[in-house]
From TrEMBL:
Location in or out of the cell: Endosome membrane; Golgi apparatus membrane
Source organism, top-level taxon: Eukaryota
GO biological process, one term: protein localization to membrane
Nucleotide-binding as UniProt keyword: no
Organism per entry: Ostreococcus mediterraneus
Renumbered residue ranges of the record's region Disordered: 1-22
Designated name of the protein: Transmembrane 9 superfamily member
Transmembrane segments: 33-53, 307-329, 373-398, 410-431, 443-464, 470-492, 527-554, 560-587, 594-615, 635-659
Membrane in keyword set: yes
Pfam family of the protein (one): EMP70
Keywords attached to this entry: Endosome, Membrane, Signal, Transmembrane, Transmembrane helix
The family this protein is said to belong to: Belongs to the nonaspanin (TM9SF) (TC 9.A.2) family.
Length: 669
């Protein structure tokens, strides 16, 4: 669902010779940083202006589902989905509670994303006739057993909510919010299974009043459903005599104009209690058009916070851009000029700085095979994220397309395995590695292997709770096929092509004997520099991270992909610039071990992300089950590890380009 405000070499040289830079070479090299920084600032300003300046635009709905037209008195069925709770984070099937069942329960076809989310869409006894109000419809009568009573009470105390679907719209309780824009209507997804009184007695919501909003075409008299609201009640129904074919209730009888209300005694939970399930259906004509029917579900009441996040992130980027420009335009220019003016060997020996380590700066790092694997996996994650976000911004992955976002992420990750193999093998060849098949194996199994191990352990515990969130065996087989049948072969194919390509030629030769690294000040210590470098990338995204965590753990819709795409671009720029700045300070201290530090500098923001996840867990979630704690920190570990690889790769590749640029610009005698 697209909204208007979401639019937007040099040859090898002897190792011990002294670098010099000719005037013509300087003229060719120095404008490049100027153009880069100017283009960067211009792009940021253009994006900010495009986002803030009001303009006329028309939103449109891209294919997710096709509109369904209904004639008067057409029979429409409500589908039941699942029971969800923000307390336990364990979804259950609707019929895991003793609700009224049809004679044959039919499961609706579900995509991969729906299954992974725990959706289990089934038919129900809820039916309605289009544009025909009907009240006090009885479903069935049940007698609570002791086991049923315990189950009802457990689900109610854990604050479970019932999810239903009508014409691809989720059911919601109407809430009104008041702000500077006035009073606006918003939906809370689902309705509670029941409630607990002050004395600890649990009650079941056994009567549901559905309100269906429809938009009628005056020319054809056809209608489209544009809203699905509900109001739950707990009523202790009574009757004189029970007739299963035509039950007549004393607590709800339209003929006597007796309707369900909050003033009636509620339905308690207890052994031997008789519970009767009923519902009402009311139809209201609405001016809302079908293309805009999701607006109420996706109402964003705190868009100012998102704009604050964007502006805050842009200020960080502008600050880093200015610092990077000063380094590249003034400091580097001054260093090269001074170094070219040195005439005697004594002056050269007294000089210090980044230019003295040109014979060691491209020395192969420790564990270079794993560095290439991490970088290849990071490129895979970056490609997956960018392509997914592109389609999400266009509206193809809107909430109307249930499970579409997760399905797209899984499939794109598998397809992008080729880039993982290609980049990792290319870097492996650059590091003079030979065993490319083993490197390809590591690239194919590193991140998916971590995901598989953590996910399998969590899946066992979820399965032990009999939750629908456990991955079924059939879906598990599909995931294994996607991994071993498609992802692994694509990784090996990319590795073969990447290893066959000619490696990058180093701008300068590497000395055979490593240069001794002088003592470093405390602030250039590895741990200090890495932790400091990770603060700014995290500061650029932490506000948006709050909304993402809220959508994941508090069962809310997240659709503001325009904001997210802009934040992602800012994150990439921030990671690149902070790593270049920290790398420059490092090589100026004559420390040439920049390979892994460049990866860890920007990747350290994942440490702050996980720490923020701990704070979010303590302050926002109300968790009462140990399994829920395991699920939360298990998935946060996987997400933080993926974020570490992605941001670390951005910093490493940016630093590699920076090092090659500055040493490639120096002509050595």
């Amino acid at each position: 669902y697209l909204r208007p405000n979401e639019a937007a070499s040099s040859p090898r040289h002897p190792p011990c010779s002294r670098p010099t830079l000719s005037r013509s070479t300087r003229a060719q090299i120095m404008p490049k940083p100027i153009a880069l920084v100017a283009a960067l600032v211009a792009a940021l300003v253009a994006a900010l202006v495009a986002a803030l300046v009001p303009r006329r635009a028309h939103g449109f709905y891209l294919p997710g589902v096709a509109p369904q037209d209904y004639e008067r008195d057409d029979l429409v069925y409500i589908k039941v989905n699942k029971l969800t709770s923000t307390v336990t984070q364990l979804p259950y099937e609707y019929y895991s509670l003793p609700y009224c069942k049809p004679d044959k329960v039919k499961h609706a076809a579900e995509n991969l994303g729906e299954v992974l989310r725990g959706d289990r869409i089934e038919n129900s006894l809820y039916s309605l006739e289009m544009r025909f109000d009907d009240q006090c419809k009885v479903q069935c009568k049940e007698i609570m057993t002791e086991e049923d009573a315990k189950l009802w009470k457990s689900r109610i105390e854990d604050e479970y909510r019932v999810m239903m679907i009508l014409d691809n719209l989720p059911v919601g309780i109407t809430r009104y919010i008041e702000d500077e824009k006035g009073v606006r209507k918003k939906y809370e997804r689902g309705f509670p299974v029941g409630f607990v009184s002050e004395n600890g007695q649990a009650y079941v919501n056994n009567h549901i009043r559905f309100t269906i909003l429809y938009h009628k075409d005056p020319e054809t008299d056809l209608s489209r459903i544009v809203g699905f609201e509900c109001e739950p009640f707990s009523v202790k129904h009574t009757y004189r005599t029970w007739n299963p074919d035509k039950p007549l209730l004393q607590t709800c009888d339209p003929r006597e104009k007796i309707y369900v209300s909050d003033s009636q005694p509620p339905q308690p939970v207890g052994k031997g209690e008789e519970i009767i399930f009923t519902y009402d259906t009311l139809f209201k004509e609405s001016e809302i058009r079908w293309a805009s029917r999701w607006d109420t579900y996706l109402l964003m009441a705190d868009d100012e916070i998102h704009w604050f996040s964007i502006i805050n992130s842009m200020m960080i980027v502008l600050f880093l851009s200015v610092m990077t420009a000063l380094i590249m335009l003034r400091t580097l220019h001054r260093d090269i000029t001074v170094y070219n003016q040195l005439e005697t060997a004594e002056e050269t020996q007294e000089e210090s700085g980044w230019k003295l380590i040109h014979g060691d700066v491209f020395r192969v790092p420790f564990a270079y095979d794993w560095l290439s694997v991490f970088a290849g996996t990071g490129v895979q994650l970056i490609c997956m994220t960018m392509v997914t976000m592109f389609f999400a911004v266009l509206g193809f992955l809107s909430p109307a397309n249930r499970g579409g976002l997760m399905t797209a992420m899984v499939m794109l990750y598998v397809i992008m395995s080729f880039t993982n193999g290609y980049v990792s093998a290319f870097l492996f060849r650059m590091f003079k590695g030979q065993a490319w098949k083993m490197n390809a194996m590591k690239a194919a199994f590193m991140y998916p292997g971590v995901f598989f191990c953590v996910g399998s352990v969590l899946n066992v515990f979820i399965w032990g709770q009999k939750s629908s969130g456990a991955i079924p065996f059939g879906t598990f087989f599909v995931l294994m096929f996607l991994w071993f049948g498609i992802s692994v072969p694509l990784t090996f194919m990319g590795s073969y092509m990447g290893f066959k390509r000619e490696p990058l030629e180093e701008p300068v030769r590497t000395n055979k004997i490593p240069r001794q690294i002088p003592p470093q000040p405390w602030y250039m210590n590895d741990i200090v520099a890495i932790l400091v470098g990770g603060i700014l990338p995290f500061g650029a995204v932490f506000i948006e991270l709050f909304f993402i965590l809220t959508s994941i753990w508090l069962q809310q819709f997240y659709y503001i992909f325009g904001f997210l795409a802009l934040v992602m671009i800012i994150l990439v720029i921030t990671c690149a610039e902070i790593t270049i700045v920290m790398c420059y300070f490092q090589i100026c201290s004559e420390d040439y071990r920049w390979w892994w530090r460049s990866f860890l500098t920007s990747g350290a923001s994942a440490f702050y992300m996980f720490a923020y996840g701990v704070v979010y867990y303590k302050t926002r979630l109300v968790v009462t089950h140990k399994v829920t704690t395991m699920i939360y920190f298990g998935y946060m570990t996987i997400l933080s590890f993926g974020y570490f690889i992605l941001t670390g790769t951005v910093g490493f590749l940016s630093c590699l380009a920076f090092i090659r640029a500055i040493y490639g610009s120096v002509k050595i005698d």
